[in-house]
Amino acid sequence: MLCPSQVGSGMILVGMADMESASSASDGIARGAAAAGNVTAAEGVAIAEGVAASEGTAAAEGAVVAEGAAVVAEGAAAVAEGAAAVAEDVAAAEGPAIAEDVAAATEGAAVAEDIAAAEGAAIAEGAATAEGVIAAEGAVDMEGVVAVRETVNADGAVNVEVFTA
Predict the structure, then answer these.
(1) How far is CA 91 from the centre of its chain?
(2) Cα separation of 118 and 100, whole Å?
(3) What secondary structure does DSSP assign to 18-70, as a single string?
(4) pLDDT band at residue 116 using 50, 70 and 90 as cut-offs
(5) Running DSSP on this structure, what letter comes out for residue 108?
(6) Which of 82, 110, 140, 159 has its Cα between 20 and 30 A from that of 129?
(7) Is the CB of residue 165 less than 8 Å from the CB of residue 143?
(8) What is the C-alpha to C-alpha distance for residues 146 and 165, in angstroms, rounded to an integer?
(9) Per residue in 140-152, pLDDT tens?
């Protein structure tokens, strides 16, 4: 058995050894914590880089979608321009045809008016000629008259011939 003084000093030695062990343990714990902190920091950087990469990918995908939408909008604009051009071409093609139809109708009306006027003039001339014949007949004794013939000269003068029996 140890004497109290030895026990006490042994306890001090053991206590010192325990303190050294505790110190070593705390150093190890600190080192472990530091290492864990470095691992955590490294993981945090990796996570942050992953988030940044994801955001970059999302931004790139958004840009692609926006570009696609712009291309679709340009295509729609091109289709609208094409439709407008076709409408203009159709209108341009129909315009002369309509104008020709109107001109033909107008010319037809003018021709009809000319024909009506000519017929009217011929009828009026015929009536005048008939009146002239009647007047001539009235002036001439119609007894023995079998026929009356009228002719128009090249200068427009009317000749009346009366044939008797």
Answers:
(1) 16
(2) 26
(3) HHHHHHHHHHHHHHHHHHHHHHHHHHHHHHHHHHHHHHHHHHHHHHHHHHHHH
(4) confident
(5) H
(6) 110
(7) no
(8) 6
(9) 566 777 888 888 8
| CA–CA dist 65, 78 (Å, integer) | 20
Span of 8-17, 37-46, 83-92, 144-153 with lowest mean pLDDT: 8-17
Q: Are 164 and 142 in contact (CB under 8 A)?
A: no
Residue 31: its pLDDT value, please?
76
Which residue is associated with the tokens 């045809």?
97
Residue 35's identity, in one-letter code, is: A
Residue 126 reports pLDDT greater than 70: yes
Cα separation, 88 vs 46, whole angstroms: 62
Question: d(Cα 157, Cα 125) in Å, to the nearest integer?
Answer: 11
Per the DSSP assignment, residues forming a β-bridge with 162 are 148
Tokens of 51: 């988030």
Q: Which two tokens stand for residue 119?
A: 């017929």
| Rounded CA separation 97/94 (Å) | 5
Question: What per-residue confidence (pLDDT) applies to 23?
Answer: 64
The arithmetic mean of pLDDT across residues 69-91, rounded, is 77
